Give the backbone structure.
Amino acid sequence: MTSVSQFLLNRSSEPRLRAPAPSKEVLETVFSCAARAPDHALLRPWRYLVIEGSGREALGELFAATCPADADDAAIEKLRRAPLRAPMVIVGIASPSAHPKVPEVEQIMSAAAGMSFLELALQDAGFGVMWRTGAVAYNPVVHEGLGLGEGESIVGFLYTGTIAVEKPPVPRPAVSEFVKHWPGEQR
Ligand SMILES: Cc1cc2nc3c(=O)[nH]c(=O)nc-3n(C[C@H](O)[C@H](O)[C@H](O)COP(=O)(O)O)c2cc1C
């Protein structure tokens, strides 16, 4: 088995994170890995925003601004504090463009593949990572505040930093539960 497979078999998302965040050098490497995602017609249909320090507070204000007028204080405060769960939040943005052979859905899938490569590269560099979305990812207030353009969407927020407390193991499904041969076993 290759070391890549071994790494994948052992990886987990980690929600409990603390400083320090990945360095500039680590970011250079992991974003280069993200850019290796499969990409039909090489459209590069993705971009990323790195948010750290007080930028996380500004992101929290955007999240809080998505609350309806009758939301209770606890709910607003929870959203306001959400980005503080890690020292760095990376926003993955799908940025599709019109193409005669590559539908939008393929471009969004490519952006999601890039996000996944980014998550794996950060984990390979020793950092904890948690890919999150929630309603805020689909809210126009957040889109406008983060400067998303027409047709762009948020693939997710990658919360990353140093692992504070390791998560207990997640049960994984047996391969036979989600893989079948079609039209039948050939061997
Ligand atoms: C697009 C996407 C959005 C997600 N959003 C959330 C989220 O908002 N909150 C959450 O707890 N987990 C979310 N997850 C799941 C976690 O990132 C993680 O995959 C899950 O906790 C399982 O952990 P594992 O990666 O160790 O298997 C999301 C995953 C994906 C792919």
